[in-house]
Amino acid sequence: MKFTISRNLLMNSINNVSVAISSRTAIPILTGMKLQITKEGLTLTGSDSNISIESFIPTQTDETINIENIVPGSIVVQAQYFPQIIRKLPENVVHIEVDDQANMSIRSGKAHFTLNGINAEEYPQLPVVTDDESFTIQTDLLKSLIRQTVFAISVMETRPILTGVNVQLNDSTLTFTATDGHRLASREVFLQDTTITIQSAVIPGSSLNELYKILDDKEETVKISLTNNLILFKTESLYFLSRLLDGKYPETSSLIPDEQQTMLHVNTQQLIQTVDRAALLASRDRNQVIKLETKDNNVIEISSESLEIGEVVEEINVIEHSGDPLQISFSAKYLHDGLRAIESDEVRITFSGSMRPFVIRPNNDDPVLQLILPVRTF
Questions:
Q1: Going edge to edge, which strands form the sheet with 262-267?
Q2: Is the CB of residue 2 less than 8 Å from the CB of residue 70?
Q3: All domains of the chain, ordered by start, with CATH?
Q4: Where are the alpha helices (DSSP H) in 77-124?
Q5: Over the stretch 138-152, which tens digit does the pLDDT of each residue have?
Q6: In which element (H, E) is residue 7 found?
Q7: Taking the model in full, what pTM does it have?
């Protein structure tokens, strides 16, 4: 096995697959990283049994030669040391060669490392996911779906199913939903030329967070395929496989109020800044609870207090206020997260009472929704 490659190009793929490698795995060889070079290109693989990632570097991209001096072969190297070595090489050109005893030679400039490897035939075969149940989506749209929902998953293992994002696909409408029992985030997108139906597939939030980090921002499509307990995200250079969570995701549509008593149309950034200031003095042991009260003349009051520290009260003008007067308390963090996820300059917040969930939507037709449960303080 032998090839010459750019350090920066190799490092990018190493970073992508490293997130799938854990030192805590029960299968020792999975603590390593698999490299396989062919005339078509270099494939790096990492897996911890829950997620598996392959990153592919083609030999040539358009007129650019990425890999030279190729002798096909494969090896598994120690993931604890291989990335550090490549990262700290003195020059951008890297020469890698593996002998018959699985010893890897790494040369760059005047630096020379020898790293003990393992025969790649011992590395487990990744599960095969067919294209029978698959659909495609633009990368930026997928990243938006993740960004606007995954933050609302539960971090508690008492209800493992809530640590994932529920994915549904019906009538060409793809829906991502996440809840921790105190808030809910949902986003819908319409997909053209999609005929399959997904009743419910719960993807671990940890998997989606890692996928979000390594997906390129460039315009390309992602093919998503499902089979039993696995989901595969595939691009031209990336193969990201994750196990799905077992269990039935709770029905969440009934949580969304179908009536409203009070509506606020507000500037998103102004409200975020006011909430952030109020959270400074909010009691930490009460999840930064702040209060909102409507006033006359399109004014609302945001306040918080701490017996040990003090209190803050701030009034802001809203674009529109309709309906009944309102006093309500809620988590400043939840409201801040929800407002940021909506990604709209203006939002409409609808309330159906001081002790019922309230809903935040963008002031346009974008089908994204944030729901927050209030806290009893008044």
A1: 198-204, 164-170, 173-179, 183-190, 368-372, 358-362, 346-351, 262-267, 320-323
A2: yes
A3: 2-122 (3.10.150.10), 134-222+243-253 (3.10.150.10), 256-372 (3.70.10.10)
A4: 82-87
A5: 999 999 999 999 999
A6: helix 7-18
A7: 0.92
